[in-house]
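Handout, section 4.2: multi-component inputs.
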Amino acid sequence: MFQVRIHGRGGQGVVTGAEMLSIAAFLGGRHAQAVPSFGSERTGAPVVAFCRIDDHEIRLREPVMAPDALLIQDPTLLHQIDVFQGLGPDGYVLINTNRSFEDLGLGEFMAGFRRERLCTVPATELALKYVGRPVPNVPLLGAFAAISGLISLDAVIAAIREKFSGKVAEGNALAAGAAYNTALEAKKEATHA
Amino acid sequence: MLKQIEGSHAVAEAVSLCRPEVICAYPISPQTHIVEALGEMVKSGELDRCEFINVESEFAAMSVAIGASAAGARTYTATASQGLLFMAEAVYNAAGLGLPIVMTDANRAIGAPINIWNDHSDALSMRDSGWIQLFAETNQEALDLHILAFRLAEELSLPVMVCMDGFILTHAYERVDMPTQQQVDRFLPPYEPRQVLDPREPVSIGAMVGPEAFSEVRYLAHAKQLQALERIPVLAGEFSTIFGRESGRLVHRYRTEDAETVVIAMGSVMGTIKDVVDEMRASGVSIGALGICSYRPAPLAVIRETVKGARRVVVLEKSLAVGLGGILATDVRMALSGLHLHGYTVIAGLGGRPILKSSLHALFERAGRDELEHVTFLDLNWDVVNRVLERERTTRRSGSIAENVLRDVGVPTASGV
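Output:
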């Protein structure tokens, strides 16, 4: 079973991101379970959502304690809560920022992880450019597809179209594609480095 | 058709396939996405020949459901938590009048303290109301149970409450197999009421019944529930023939044959329990689990038959009979009368506290060594509890318990300045 934890703030589409991830995994023929962390979600407050992906029916109903991947939609959370809790050294980490891990002061910490599984993505910038709103969830999913290979970009775009329609859907699809390409480049560099 | 959708939406689609004629709901928290989605379906015309009635309170929701059902309409509503309590008087009346209303209860805790999260306190507070109460383990079962509920309700002329864990199921996106309209139509014939209010042939229902006949009417309510005990397995069998899967039996057994320890629970926590059972079985522990789907009527004989060879029974429940212990555990004890086995009650998951696999492992291992207390509160923070008790012992004006506990666990409160 592959477990994803998404951290963000109310209004950033954290829960919707987990739901779209589960739809993308489902479209890829997998079983998936997406759940919010059951708080009273308010704009700006820290929000967590989970997604599990497996080849079998998922019966487990506890929160994700030991994630295989972390999607961090707001880098200011790094100083507020222990977002890395339970993450193993083989874990994937994607952070929405236009800075590098080193610039974020995480260089030393991230040295214990596999470089090709780490990625920073300017997801908010991409969302503003293509959707016109600072909603970083979809670009992060695009980047996650590239880094993990667990879901395809096509499945992400199909999931976007299940959740949104019209201009919002098309903008998000473009944002996902752009993030996918950015992340794929970063992954190639990290693999060859 | 396989779909990856939210539990609430899956239930809304299933209810829609049941061709309801009246849906009434009070559109405020704690309401669910279920009626929201159904409201959209009625407005868009996707669900036709159905009236959606926005009512002014939960009490009105059940009262309108009673009126609609008595007029011969297939009637649905949904509620949770305090909403269910507010409609309590009408809930009893719906059952007493024998009206086959189907209602979803998206199970949540009851205040005070205020809490919006999941446990089974709401549904279990209505356990003696005369409603049939079915608990879903998964979103697939939740949607299936609604189809079964309309059939069962209308056949027996009794209301059915489908209980699904609030948030854990209602807000979870997972794979469900959505039946076709044709399948649902094959399973669920048009509603043929036993009693109907019709201006052309005026009758009254809801008579005042005095001591000369009240016991008989009440006994017949009990007898109907006993009929339901026989009908649920039969209808579940028909269901699996038409829909190709098992849903809505009286109980679900999981590796209980020859199990020395049998864990009994209701609802979505059964999934986590099954994972733990598999892991413990793999390391040689003789353990199984029994999920109660039909809470009312209580399948006492089936429970007894399932656990009679076991050494111990652990009832893990998301409810608390204050001053007694377990609610489900008390029912289970009825089923075990005369059997020589250890019985343990575990109160878990109250007000949305996650029930962790690691906690269950430790719990079941202790149960296997017969080291559990008679009643255990899973993962209780004893430091905090003892601090409050100490404060109350030493200080007269010790203040509000809820606010004190929040302060002790480090959660900021409005008054905790």
